[in-house]
Amino acid sequence: MIAxxxxxxxxxGSAAVxxxxxxxxxxxxxxVAAAALGVIVGDFRLPAGVGGTLxxxxxxxxxxxxxxxxxxxxxxxxxAAQWHDLPARPLLWETPASEVLHLDFPRExxxxxxxxxxxxxxxxxxxxxxxxxxxxxxxxxxxxxGAALTVQWLPPVAETLVLSARMLDASGxxxxxxPVPFSVTAPVPLQVVGRFGAPSxxxxxxxxxxxNSHAALDWQVVLGKTVTRSETARAAPTQPNLLVADAxxxxxxGDGARAALLAQVAAGTPLVILAANAQDKQTWARTVQLPLxxxxxxxxxGTPLALASAPLNPAAVAGPWSAAGDRIWTxxxxxxxxxxxxxxxxxxxAISEPQALALWWQGVLDRAGIERAQDVAWLDPQEMPLPGRxxxxxxxxxxxxxxxxxxxQTLAWQRRPDKADASCVAVxxxxxxxxxxxxxxxxxxxxxxxxxxxxxxxxxxxxxxxxATARYAARTPAAMAAGTAPLPAWxxxxxxxxxxxxxxWRERR
Length: 509
What we know:
Blueprint: H1 2-20, H2 24-41, E1 45-47, E2 53-57, E3 70-74, H3 80-84, E4 91-92, E5 101-104, E6 108-110, E7 115-132, E8 138-153, E9 160-169, E10 174-185, E11 191-196, H4 201-212, E12 216-222, E13 228-232, E14 242-246, H5 247-252, H6 255-266, E15 271-274, H7 281-288, E16 292-294, E17 308-309, E18 312-314, E19 322-323, E20 328-333, E21 336-341, E22 343-344, H8 349-352, H9 354-368, E23 377-378, E24 391-396, E25 401-404, E26 409-412, E27 414-415, E28 422-427, E29 433-439, E30 446-451, H10 458-474, E31 484-486, H11 490-508
Parallel strand pairs: 2-3, 3-4, 6-10, 11-12, 11-14, 14-15, 15-21
Antiparallel strand pairs: 1-31, 5-7, 7-8, 7-9, 9-10, 12-13, 16-18, 17-22, 19-20, 20-21, 23-24, 24-28, 25-26, 25-29, 27-28, 29-30
Transmembrane segments: 487-505
Keywords: Membrane, Transmembrane, Transmembrane helix
């Protein structure tokens, strides 16, 4: 508004000069041009409806906002693909109060990890959530009260699945149901270096777990002063991504060897320390700043496995160390991470609870921050892909082109400023089901994207429409005052140009 005021003052001053010269028409043209330019740069508004507010419904497909000064929307909103193509306009919209659902589950899962489906409702109640196999048999079931429930299931093999889920109210009536698609992939084998200063049943149980997961091992166990048992895979680890050692081995290392081990960790290889045979508190305090204290004799405790405590464990959570679970502590070591595993006797569950033991060790390795090399990572779509609607397919580590055999399309990857380090392409799926894709290059990588039917999960679709509409409202150029709309600028720009042209023509005569 300050700029508009200055323009008006300058225009009045210029018109006064023309009036002093008795050039009445030129003075009028200057006033008209100044007034038009002031309206263009000023923030002038009209009552709502006068400035061209466009009313649209949530089911509208073809929308043109170029001539609209504002948008009035009814219903649950538009999907993100539609909002992305529309210019920013002030939005008049109230979020409906009806119930919606939010589903959260991984689209790709590594074999050996637990699949978890979480469903969140907008209204808390007593209800039940079930996960069904492809033959409609219930494989996971949970009931409770509240706004969110989670079911878990451990896939037995690596395959592509389309399970289904259903929600039931307290009386057993189905409230919502729909497909749950995901892929289970074979894990990338670990390359593990293990060093142990004494034999133990725990180390042996860990060895069997790693062998069963097809890990490549370089394993050495000291059996006596001059006897060491070694175990090496046919293909010895070339770039180990995990170091495992018991406390006795590290305590017996010389200063130089211990420094070399920590240098490996600093370079990015995580280290898991089995603390059951730790004895030298000074060594740990000096080398990794870990203060230890003796633990009182106690019966095995903890969940999900009842385990005994190591004889020495951290005295308190302080400094660079932090608690990462039941008697598990971690700290960063430059690019790597050190895990102090302060429990023992997990070998007792190798026969009685092998699945629980494998999942527990998977959690320990997750805390270690193991990184496995992956050439291409496919990103989950922002919304449910639907037939006939544009879908963005994005991935990390790709270049060149990607092919969609079913669509008979080959598209070039394009960088997106709103997706860091990712490249994307846009496709229009024709039907529901799995949509296959493959990158080009020396090492082609295949991927799959599940396209939902338009009738699948209507309450989840409503939730995604509302979220996309809220994001669109957040990028509105300026919040619109209640009952007003911006004044269109193009008529005043045309009036300013005509006035200046007439003034120029009169000056040239």
